[in-house]
Amino acid sequence: xxxxxxxxxxxxxxxxxIGTFVFLWQKSQxxxxxxxxxxVSTGSIQKKTVATGKxxxxxxxxxxxxxxxxxxxxxxxxxxxxxxxxxIAKIKLIPDMVSLNAAEARVVRAQLGxxxxxxxxxxxxxxxxxxxxxxxxxxxxxxxxNNDRSELKTAQDNLSLTRDGITSDKTLVSNTLVRSTxxxxxxxxxxxxxxxxxxxxxxxxxxxxxAVANMSDMLFVGKLDETExxxxxxxxxxxxxxxxxxxxxxxxxxxxxxxxxxxxxxxIMFDMKAAVTVTDDMFIRAxxxxxxxxxxxxxxxxxxxxxxxxxxxxxxxxxxxxxTEEPQAFExxxxxxxxxxxxxxxxxxxxxQGDKIRGTEIIENKQSNS
Length: 370
Description:
The protein is α+β, with helices and mostly antiparallel strands. It has helices at 2-28, 97-129, 135-164, 226-229, and strands spanning 34-39, 41-57, 60-63, 69-74, 81-82, 87-93, 177-179, 184-188, 196-197, 210-213, 218-225, 237-242, 249-257, 262-264, 267-276, 288-306, 311-313, 316-324, 329-340, 344-349, 356-362. β19 and β20 (344-349) form a beta hairpin.
């Protein structure tokens, strides 16, 4: 029985020794590296940076009343298209009682004066026709009649303005009718029927009746990091991507870069504005968040390869062109590079379209055939 255990032990030792030698032999075999093969093609390279911000109208006009009162009617709502002169709301005037009493008293006085002048004028007219008084006396009476009639009309209009904010012959241009001052879209109407409103004056900005803007004239308003601001200038092209409208890009042109930066969480940011070209088939709402890609430089229809395929030695760039596929064999070749966007790089010379070059390594170990 002891001999059986002895033979088993010796067998296990032999198997272990043989396994160790096999493992060490396999480890000593050279690893065969396999690489992805990249076909050289043509494309476009853009060097750019990204700024975050939002899209908003160039000019947002706040419509304010020309007198104080209470909103009696609203004729429009947010989202409506309006033209300059279109009525948005109507105001009911709440008159000051002191001014109202004074206006009513003025009308009474003017009416009394006119009634007396009218009687004198009719009497003088009859006397003139009978040649009892001269023309000069009659014309004086007629002038007084016309003056008192005009004063009565003025007093009545003043009472109407004080009480109602409108006169009988100025209905179409009444201050009680709030009108749009531009063509555009109503962005907001922050008041309701029954709200009190205050006219704009030297001491008060006045109540906003509506905000109106031309939605075809839009700006991208954003911020640019100080590390990038030195590389941009007015007139540079931009591409605007709006989060709420996926899959579409809008062209824009940089118009303004702030001369002074502001501290934002430890980073210095500069305000920027760009004019956005809005196509007829797009409806953009004010305040959409957006990203702007500012294009520093661009190369169109050039030879491009992934930047990971390029090897650098000092100021010299190399690629490895494919000689054979099985087994893979490559030849080191010098190239001249151009514009890079961090992913792809332009090759100015050394390669042509259709060439095959070595890409990234495929992690797979094989024993060499020997």
